């Protein structure tokens, strides 16, 4: 279109040197063709952007339909069918108030192949949920700044209590970054519980107890990965 406008403009200028009649005819052609070129460009642009908008809208509707379909699927799946049972969970056990006896080095050794470390009390109630990368970050910060290490301790002597005391927000995260549902709940209930807890802090785990109360022994464990797996339709 730009090339056509340039050619026509040059033609009009050239013909103006020939005669007035030819110039008038050239002006007429120029005045007629120029709007045609503009309309053609406008049509192409409108088609391109409307196509992009249509594709984006279609994708949004498809994603929404998939999510809604996935939620309906989750409503039909009891958590007891998909949860990891207590007997299949690798966890550490401590008594409340003995966090200073739970060495981080021991946790890393025991959970070498796992990323999440559930810590239960002697009644099998969940007390802490530690992500292994949290321990790595804490130990790395201690190694980089040895002055932070408590007196008469080595890095290998640092305990869960040292981790909890290092940051109040981290301590809260280890104790509250998970939800609870009753054993008669569905995966949809577990997903909603995760979303509720996530309003205050990141939550990727839900523990199943008899009545969905945090002071009850856990029966099972549902992770975000298990929910995502069953969301697929």
Textual characterization of the structure:
With 233 residues, this protein is of the alpha/beta class. It has helices spanning 2-15, 20-75, 79-82, 104-110, 132-144, 160-166, 168-176, 187-197, 224-231, and strands at 84-85, 92-93, 116-120, 126-131, 179-182, 205-209, 218-223. Strands 1-7-6-5 form a 4-stranded mixed sheet. A 3-stranded mixed sheet has the order 2-3-4. The radius of gyration is 33 Å and the shape is elongated. The two termini are 48 Å apart.
Provide a brief overview of the structure.
The chain contains 9 helices and 7 strands. By secondary structure, it is α/β, with parallel strands linked by helices.
Number of helices: 9
What is the radius of gyration computed over CA atoms, rounded to a whole number of angstroms?
33 Å
Largest sheet: 4 strands, mixed
Strand order of the largest sheet: 1-7-6-5
**Helical residues, percent:** 55-70%
Relative strand content: 5-15%
Give the CA-based shape: elongated
List the keywords.
four-stranded mixed β-sheet; elongated; alpha/beta; 233 residues; single chain; 55% helix; three-stranded mixed β-sheet
Blueprint of the fold:
Blueprint: H1 2-15, H2 20-75, H3 79-82, E1 84-85, E2 92-93, H4 104-110, E3 116-120, E4 126-131, H5 132-144, H6 160-166, H7 168-176, E5 179-182, H8 187-197, E6 205-209, E7 218-223, H9 224-231
Parallel strand pairs: 2-3, 5-6
Antiparallel strand pairs: 1-7, 3-4, 6-7
